[in-house]
């Protein structure tokens, strides 16, 4: 994973700096999880729901000891996007779980910073880091109707066989 300046911040005209995601970024990841679950703009889930629902809470816990990693995009020291990969397993699977050892990716770009390529850049950097770690696949979950589906397809994600229709996977090696 590289650090550096990244163009593509929607209408802001700024340039984002990338830095590694840290364990102490839990509040940031919780906010991103809330934005992701409420992608329609409706408040379907509250911060209290995320804190109390194990199916959502595990998305907010970065655990480098199991291999979790990610990146944060910042403008002027303020987070505007984040991507993270969690090695959830069959005992505590995520919505996009396909197999143990296959990390589940989540990405979020804050409103006001979308549409300028920042999400694509975060995803490309995360996938490059996954390849660099020798990973074969990465999975994710995305609801039908979410406009991010087309971005994932453009990057090479496909529907995962034998899973829910919302689960997508990308093969990093042939």
Describe it for me?
The protein is α+β, with helices and mostly antiparallel strands and 174 residues long. Helices cover 26% and strands 24% of the residues. The chain has five helices and eight strands. The chain has helices spanning 26-37, 47-52, 54-57, 118-132, 148-155, and strands at residues 4-6, 16-20, 69-75, 78-86, 104-109, 137-141, 158-159, 167-171. The strands form two sheets. The protein has a five-stranded antiparallel β-sheet, with helices on both faces. A three-stranded antiparallel β-sheet has the order 6-8-7, with helices on one face. The longest helix has 15 residues, at 118-132. The protein starts with a strand and ends with a strand.
Strand count: 8
Helix content: 25-40%
Shape: globular
Mean pLDDT: 90
Low-confidence stretches: 5-13
End-to-end C-alpha gap: 21 Å
Tag the structure with descriptive keywords:
174 residues; alpha+beta; 3-stranded antiparallel β-sheet; 24% strand
Describe the secondary-structure layout.
Layout: E1 4-6, E2 16-20, H1 26-37, H2 47-52, H3 54-57, E3 69-75, E4 78-86, E5 104-109, H4 118-132, E6 137-141, H5 148-155, E7 158-159, E8 167-171
């Amino acid at each position: 994973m590289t650090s550096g300046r990244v163009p593509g911040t929607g209408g802001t005209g700024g340039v984002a700096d990338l830095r590694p995601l840290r364990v102490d970024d839990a509040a940031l990841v919780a906010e991103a999880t809330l934005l992701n679950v409420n992608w329609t703009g409706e408040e379907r889930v509250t911060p209290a729901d995320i804190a109390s629902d194990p199916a959502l809470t595990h998305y907010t816990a970065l655990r480098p000891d199991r291999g979790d990693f990610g990146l944060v995009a910042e403008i002027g020291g303020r987070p505007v996007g984040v991507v993270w990969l969690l090695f959830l397993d069959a005992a505590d699977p995520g919505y996009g779980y396909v197999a143990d050892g296959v990390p589940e990716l989540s990405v979020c770009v804050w409103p006001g910073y979308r549409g300028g390529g920042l999400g694509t850049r975060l995803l490309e950097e995360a996938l490059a880091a996954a390849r660099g770690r020798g990973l074969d696949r990465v999975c994710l979950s995305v609801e039908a109707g979410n406009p991010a589906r087309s971005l994932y397809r453009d990057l090479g994600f496909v529907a995962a066989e034998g899973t829910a229709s919302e689960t997508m996977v990308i093969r990093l090696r042939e």
